[in-house]
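Submission sheet (multi-component)
Chains listed below:
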Amino acid sequence: MTAIRRRLIVTIVAFGLPALVVIGGAPLVGSTSIDLWRALDRSVPISENVDAQIFFIARLPRTLAGALVGATLAAAGVVFQGLLRNPLATPFTLGISSGAALGAMLAITFDWTIGFGSVSAVPIASFAGSIGAVAIVYALSVARQRGLSTGVLLLAGVTLNAFFSALILFVQYFADFAETFRTLRWLMGDLDVSGFQPIVLALPLAAAAFGLFATLPRALNLLSLGPDSAGARGIDVTHAQRTAFFSASLATGAAVSVGGPIGFIGIIVPHLVRLLVGSDHRLVLPASAIFGAAFLVACDTLARTVIAPVELPVGVITALLGGPFFLWLLVRR
Amino acid sequence: MKRLRPSRGGGANRGAAAAPSERERGWGPASMKKANATLLVVLAVWLACIETAGLQTAPKRIISLIPALTEMVYAIGAGTELIAVGSFDEYPPQVASLPRVGGLLDPDLERILSLKPDLVLVYGTQTDLRLQLERAGIQQFPYKHGDLASVMATIRALGARLGRGEAAERVAADIENRLSAIRSRVSGRARPKALLVFGRDALSLRGIFASGGVGFLHDMLETAGADNVFADVTRESVQVTSELVLQRAPEAIVELRHGMKPDQLDAERSVWSALASVPAVRTGRIHILTDSSLPIPGPRAAQATELMARALHPEAFEGRPVKRPDP
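Outcome: structure written.
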């Protein structure tokens, strides 16, 4: 126990320090050069302090959104891979992102607005869509037997993905051209949240999910031997599976509502981390969350600076950078 | 006869290519070769005649897939020859009664063919459709969005194609006159640095798309008496982050939100107040324009430009009511 605790501390420090540097440095970099001291100067009113506005309204929320989305998607990826015992599982495998995308598409296409205050309906509709998808998949997976069937879960999820994708295309087909382009852009993922509101809305959900994740590593380790062996070792398999499914789904729904379905993080980061620290979920889960946060923030920093003032979709960068790097690690071993 | 009429340009070649295939279809053995050669010449001459004739007789059954071109057809007085339009056409009101044959991405070829058009106005990138129309021997008028001057050029080219050169010249010259009237009206006034937004997520500062330094929207903004903050970006559109807005610090923001209801305007305008250091936000120079003419590079380009100019320089238009062109 002490050995694992020591390894956990070493892992968190080894991943955490570079991550802190990346996340701390990201708001300082951008298409404009800003004077940090002037940005932090409280004597100038914020409405006249452009540096402060760029720092606090444009970059800081964006960096935090990147860290939140990256950590959540990476950790959810680990949990889904463990739950489904499938290395190809991603946070988007079970139809959650397609449900979210359908919600967002509807909100964008029909220009929904929420009655109270000035809240954009897109993140809320996207979260509602992911909840809907989760409910359908779960209902299907428990319909015919006691406990949760991961086989049905996987098949139902994949089918639901296809079904929602068809609905998305259907909605898009009737949208006007500009809206179609905007929905397409949403699907590429975008972290320019321009304010803390989306983060504040998603944070409690992500925090709840991470609280549940903390209870999972031992169960996920044993589940990797198969549900029967796990049960024989004193794990309440159904309970663990249910916790894993709902917490990872919650995390994914929250992340997608903030940044759209940013691909690649949920599959590449867990595998990268496993190549570095082994397969013990007690290490993989926290390390993936930290690494995911840093990786997405780094990718987003590139996305907004590489050909500034024009911006690249962050999902393009995650795949372009992550793919070759992952293949290199794979071959090197 | 209509089926054989070749497309503009490649007429003679097409005639030559068509002839051998006629021969293969059983005209015959070697003994008839000479007769066939004569026939070939006759056919070529005949086709050439049709070609010239085709250019002289204006098309009578026109389908337009592009809103801007639909407006142009009506503006030059050829509206009665339109037999169908694209999914997104709304103006002039007469289009409401015409059949719809799809849009940019989903042209309905079957319906187009069944309506037997003799000219289809297509977008330049509709490659599949253009190939299919060519195969069916239907003439086409390809078009692509360009700058403001190309609106007039397109009107003139379309007028020539439809045999209404004079009317087209009048329409184009009228737009040019009105544009230069706007130009002189705003000249000498302080030109604000302006951001021209044509897309944004409802009630948030996400998904903002603005005009870059090329294209008709940019030209309209500059004609209306403002300097585009993205004049240095040689693209038609820029995805704008909040950092970019803060950095470029526009003195005026013009938003095109076609079809937005008046009761939504205040809420949408106040979304910008999050970026308090932007001069346009501090001085309240945020103009949301909802007129349907605004995103369309057609004959209402001058009207649209004037709306922008009126928003940016209201004092220059004092005492002058908005003049609408005849539909």
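Remark: Chain B touches chain A through 37 residues (CB under 8 Å).
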